[in-house]
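Journal club side-thread
Mid-discussion, someone asked how the predicted structure for our own chain would compare to the paper's figures. Pasting it here so we can look after the session.
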Amino acid sequence: MLKSLQNLSQWLAAHASLFVIAIALLTFFVPDLFLWVRGTTQTVILGIIMLTMGLTLTTTDFRILAQRPLDILVGACAQFLIMPCVAYLLVRVFHLEPALALGILLVGCCPGGVSSNIMSYLCHGDVAFSVGMTCASTLLAPVMTPLLMQLTAGEIIEIDTIGMFLNILIVTIIPVGLGCFLNYTYSKRPNFPTIQSLMPGVSVTCLACIVGGVISTVHDTLIERGLILFVWTFAVVFCHNSLGYLLGWTAGRLAHFSKAKKRTISIEVGMQNAGLATVLAGTFFAAQPLSVLPCAISCAWHSISGTILAGLFLKSDEKRL
């Protein structure tokens, strides 16, 4: 039974984007399936995702923040400068309605996604740098995300910066801290590695639940406004994500990073914690229900595009051989 769960966890981690898309499609045709994923339940589910991240972090991962300060500084600046600015520009270029604008701005202002570490590993990037960047952006998120939302979206809607700060603290920093504590305390126990091996599957399942909850929420609007709304929103998400990869690579080049580090910063900047954006949109912009749509699309697309980009990096290596 345990071996089967471990195999399932590995399969879910390897096919995360396909699983999330399958759940989204299923929910579109059975919209009541994930109606329970909202409010406090949605927040708890994201907390579980962040807990799984903490369970995989060690004290060595945090030492990277002190051992490579310049790399982390460049990465953090790129993360919280490029993505909010690109989102703000796209909102203007695409003339997005307020709800969709809030969603894409929120994705842009959130920290890096937890699956970016896997993508960096797959493309022979600097995994230690990737983990360090994810840690740094996550630790900075309670301050940076509300501040950046105030700067970029304050003219659209009143931003509850204090409430957002506390919410991010509760759903990210505390679960990650708890996971790190458990890892530090019990890592030498014989059964602990087994628990860790199940975490990728738990994380992907929780992310799929969040996306399913979003589809349940916006289902009627999607039906009413048709395919155009989805395609238009996806186009914005695609441009935001792709420009993040490109400008992240450019930032690494300007900083004279090695090839491995350029790949890592590209992936780290382009892949956002869209699960956090989804929860924040549902909590703070409930009066604008469509604000969660760009977040949900980003949840699925970032995993797909990250896998594609990692594959392209590997293809470029093969051509040089």
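Post-session note: The mean pLDDT is 87.
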